[in-house]
Amino acid sequence: MSPLLTLTGDGTFRAPTAEEAQRLELPDDPHLAALLRLRALLGDDLEEQIATRLYLPSALGLDETDHLLPATLALLAETTGDLVSYGWRLGAGTGLAWHHARELRARVLDAARIAWLGYEGTVMATTLGPATLAGATFLQSGERTLADPGAVRDLPMLLAEGLVDHLTELRERVPGGHQHVLVREDAVAAIHQGRIPTPSGRRRYDPLPAPEIAVLWRSLYVALEDYGLDARDVTLGVGADIALLRAAREAGARRMAIAPRRLPSLSTPEGRALWEGIAEAADDGCAFEIVVDPRPGGNLAPELETMLETWRRLGHAETDAAGVTVIAHTGASHGLHSGRMDPSAQPERSTLLDESALEAMLRIAPTWAERVSA
């Protein structure tokens, strides 16, 4: 029987402090401690019809290189770079920060071999997508990668090759896991709508058309399919734009992540077009995963209630939402989608998920599952 609900996180997890590790009798190694806690939280299904999806954290927040952007850059095949005053620069030789990001990735993988010994459920890896990388990184000239169409076209191929190598290493360490990939395109809406500033700040880069973004995504999907992943084993964050939703479907996406907080109202022409596009995709067999902030004050319950109400107004029953996946997220990417935040900026450690956020999601799950049950 398929679960009514699946629970997971956004690929980040704040490593336990030394005091927390001592209280919970965890190892001193923060990577091993974090993976043991994640297995305790998400390593077993909550109930018979409430499943969990264990994820390998791409960011633990231990230092300035322990975040999702440098973790993704560490995956890029045959690519060098370093952290400079204005952000992460590609192609300037392998600097200390870049080398350290690769070391952190290796430590997490090695910790998985111990912490997840014998695990046979789903294991999710997380990466930023190629469009977001184009807006978040810089060339040797100081311009963003977004300014060079050739460099932008290369990104999905470099990412795909490195990601496949990463998944291969993960399979060696957790041989019983069923692999899943979350592709976070946190800044794709701002890139598509031309809201990314140039280094001078006096102008903005031209919008990247949706068909060109679809080509970037398609390159990534082809590589993952060649590796052996089905399109349903890949979740793509598509923002809240009907053109990007269509681009994702053209690229072959069958599982997409959306955040209720960013979805426009059904009463607006833009909102109706997007919601009807979501409904059409769902009718065609696409799955949608819901990105929510489960922390106190995160508006989890109101956002889910609004989403169900909209679903009903489109002629669907609440039970049609059965099988949905909920992704816990602190909401840190909302500013990136809108263009209010620079995708190259160093995130705060507080933007990472912690144990209390995942526990909050686990607590509300039975109520949500009851709502969508037949």
What portion of the residues fall into strands of 2 or more residues? 5-15%
Q: Which residues form runs of ≥5 with pLDDT under 50?
A: none
Output the number of helix runs: 13
Number of strands: 12
Structural class: alpha/beta
The overall pLDDT, averaged over residues, is: 93
Major sheet strand order: 2-1-12-11-10-9-8-6-3
The biggest beta sheet reads:
9 strands, parallel
Describe this structure in words.
The chain is globular. The protein has helices spanning 18-23, 30-42, 68-73, 96-115, 130-136, 149-173, 188-192, 210-227, 242-251, 269-283, 300-313, 334-338, 355-372; strands at 5-9, 50-52, 54-55, 81-84, 87-90, 122-128, 137-138, 178-184, 234-237, 255-258, 287-292, 324-328. It is of the alpha/beta class and 374 residues long. A hairpin with a 2-residue loop joins strand 4 and strand 5. 43% of the residues lie in helices and 14% in strands. The chain has a nine-stranded parallel beta sheet with strand order 2-1-12-11-10-9-8-6-3. Strands 4-5-7 form a three-stranded mixed beta sheet.
